[in-house]
Amino acid sequence: MPNVIVVIGAGSIGQAIARRVSAGRQVLLADLRQENADAAAKVLSDAGFEVSTAIVDVASRASVHALVETATKIGTVTGVIHAAGLSPSQASPAAILKVDLYGTALVLEEFGNVIAPGGSGVVIASQSGHRLPALTPEQDKALATTPADELLGLPMLQPDQVTDPLHAYQVSKRGNSLRVMAEAVRWGKRGARVNTISPGIIFTPLAKDELTGPRGAGYRRMIELSPAGRGGTPDEVGVVGALLMGPDGGFITGSDFLMDGGVTAAYWYGELAPQ
Amino acid sequence: MPNVIVVIGAGSIGQAIARRVSAGRQVLLADLRQENADAAAKVLSDAGFEVSTAIVDVASRASVHALVETATKIGTVTGVIHAAGLSPSQASPAAILKVDLYGTALVLEEFGNVIAPGGSGVVIASQSGHRLPALTPEQDKALATTPADELLGLPMLQPDQVTDPLHAYQVSKRGNSLRVMAEAVRWGKRGARVNTISPGIIFTPLAKDELTGPRGAGYRRMIELSPAGRGGTPDEVGVVGALLMGPDGGFITGSDFLMDGGVTAAYWYGELAPQ
Amino acid sequence: MPNVIVVIGAGSIGQAIARRVSAGRQVLLADLRQENADAAAKVLSDAGFEVSTAIVDVASRASVHALVETATKIGTVTGVIHAAGLSPSQASPAAILKVDLYGTALVLEEFGNVIAPGGSGVVIASQSGHRLPALTPEQDKALATTPADELLGLPMLQPDQVTDPLHAYQVSKRGNSLRVMAEAVRWGKRGARVNTISPGIIFTPLAKDELTGPRGAGYRRMIELSPAGRGGTPDEVGVVGALLMGPDGGFITGSDFLMDGGVTAAYWYGELAPQ
Amino acid sequence: MPNVIVVIGAGSIGQAIARRVSAGRQVLLADLRQENADAAAKVLSDAGFEVSTAIVDVASRASVHALVETATKIGTVTGVIHAAGLSPSQASPAAILKVDLYGTALVLEEFGNVIAPGGSGVVIASQSGHRLPALTPEQDKALATTPADELLGLPMLQPDQVTDPLHAYQVSKRGNSLRVMAEAVRWGKRGARVNTISPGIIFTPLAKDELTGPRGAGYRRMIELSPAGRGGTPDEVGVVGALLMGPDGGFITGSDFLMDGGVTAAYWYGELAPQ
Q1: How far is D42 from chain C (nearest CA, A)?
Q2: Is the pTM of the predicted complex or chain greater than 0.95?
């Protein structure tokens, strides 16, 4: 029975982590769009991995559940890399909450039912989740523990409360980290672990497009004024992901690792503070 | 001019990180007590490192400054591992704030003045800092950016506000993480990085004594009900510390890495929740 | 002055190492063919790296020297990844010796003149070098230390001695490892290090073509009868390459790391022994 | 059923590897002398590991077999770190061959019968094995594959052939590497891997004594004239050992990793060449 690493989202961060943890295992690469899954599968296959693909809409329980069934038919699910989501420039607040917040809750719940003992998961959130001011303990708990199918009904997530895509994104990413924390308890009962990585500006092809696009000046300023003075690479996220998923991360679960070149630090206490 | 790694605090977590980043460099091991520094220096010397010792009282600017001078006389300071502090069972609230909060602010400020380009620092905080409910943005900012010598004068830190050692400890550790964030901005201007690690129950000799001491039942329950179901080892912290201080951590600064076996998760959302 | 990582050879093994050691640095990617360099540069650029390209014929001193000049104009050469070469199915014995043996000697000599203190290099050889029976100490020394421009004049390398491409390849790869050993002495005087990695069957796109090509049955048998029972991935070589080039490899120089899934072991002492 | 890491030899190299791979597992620490085992067990226990001890004489099959039985009673043997042996200054040629060569063959054979699928082993040999001139293919094969109990009867190992302790040591260490290669084939059939590390001068307490002892000048010259210009630390060996034993080493088996600061390079092709 082979070991399976499930990668949700065809982007380069998920791929970079998968490259580090999938040798000798089967990769199941799922994306909303078959052509994206195929393209990423081609890259990973060229990189020497055994890869199959699936379509998944993470905002649909039936679809996520079907992905779980596909994965468990291939083998034992020892790793889950959840890197799918909508960015604030791509969608409405409602769509962002549905995919980024609810979708992640579904993925954590459904794969938490089958993850192997000794297995591990990583959810890719965002530095944006670290920019939102603190929520109340009740709000934190609601995001962490409300049953997935009731999550979008929370008062704090209604259209009058979440009025712009960036806010929806920040709440979703904060919610990812909180949800991972609560799920870490449940995954722990199976002998598995799960953590969040909150990347900053990572030089994916998409990000590089943004840097030269209409909002490029803002991104470039963010990089220039950040403590590290540069963007990150997907492979740098891959190293942290591999640590979290592997034996060196055996004592780490329910945590959120911010890797953003210090942009969050500069946002709160440096030159990137909002005026 | 040799490279110097400054280790403040003679305990096994600081040693474990030092072991991973100090080959071919000089270790300067500083502790409040010469006998502690000597004992740790013996261990590291037996482990193949070049070690010298110093006495430091991190709660005294003059003492921290003298340590900086000792270090820069030896060579270029490329790494700082700050792992000294008082635990809540050891001291009064005022003493804890002075050593753990103010002392860390001093260390970050004084070594931030001399850290080499490409250098890095790690501050050992605690999972306790993740247990304190959220502070206000103003409180966060005050802990992060108030000039070190005015820090203990903050209203939120006065005896009527911080009435027990545990609270003092939690505030201090939260403050460490915030202070590291603000200092990451300043260290970044020198081309250096600094991060926090917040360990949970790590099986140091001291912790093992606690496990069999009067409060041992509580600690053992914490471990049993945690997602990981075990305590950590200093060497596991050493691996994360080495990642943060080395090239793989080049995009990570101003962050706080919680590694606690999921105890914090279980405190907020699991069986370790306060009744 | 930026730090430069020079990658010679556009294949996926060199790229995988480069991905692990080049964040925040400039990559100079050189290949015999501009279109290969461009394609690899596109991949690394999409992966977030700053990349420029150059053409190099490693079998020409003038060309290698020009590459050195290009590199030093960009910045300080802190890393060299030499992964260019001809495989035994691609060329004549003479061409293989010229590119794989003499070319590597040139690269080591020319970059050994400019490598930065603290810098490091990795040469990608092959498990084939571990399959050749032992040479005499005199032959070893000749391959290790004969001035590069006299190397191809050695009696042991003349056409009557090296009659088939596989033998030429094995001698060249053995020679790479010996040359690296001798150059490690010279690089050490600059405070730099250099090592060899001898990979076995790594699932590059080229190798995957071979597996389904006319000699595929032989390769598949080799994998099936090997102790690991699988091929490797470029990223697995990348991890070892990053260790050798980074601080964790600080005590390693002049060594040759065989990573072949045990094929060499099975060739000498197992089911892959020649009949 | 807990996972067990068996450490044979109480020295600091074995401990350093154990520290890196034993979190959450049981360590069984075996040495010829109970007091050595106890002292090392104390260190590892203070470092947070669960440790039990055993006495073993690796030169006795009954004793090694008893150790296997002790280990399998504790749990599943997922790791073996064999770091016991006699040094050339400690014993006669016959004793060295019996412990270092035959004893290692026994350990590999006996633990190869019980190692868990996915498990791995590391044998600590020495740079000395890389200093011996090449043996004939027949000699290599004899050292690799002669049944353990006939090994010391080989003509090449008789007193007239091996006349001094250093030669006995070099042959033994060469033999370790060859034996590991042959055993890698057998361990592979169980889904396990095994490799050799050949360290150079590692600053263990014993080595530090040597540096100040009667042969200290020779050791110090070796270090000064080596490419790295320094000795190594046990923890540097620990990092390589952890890589070899963990998932990043999944494609590595039957190999021998020389980590000696380039002393071997300088012996063959540099200033450490015998006059």
Answers
A1: 27
A2: yes
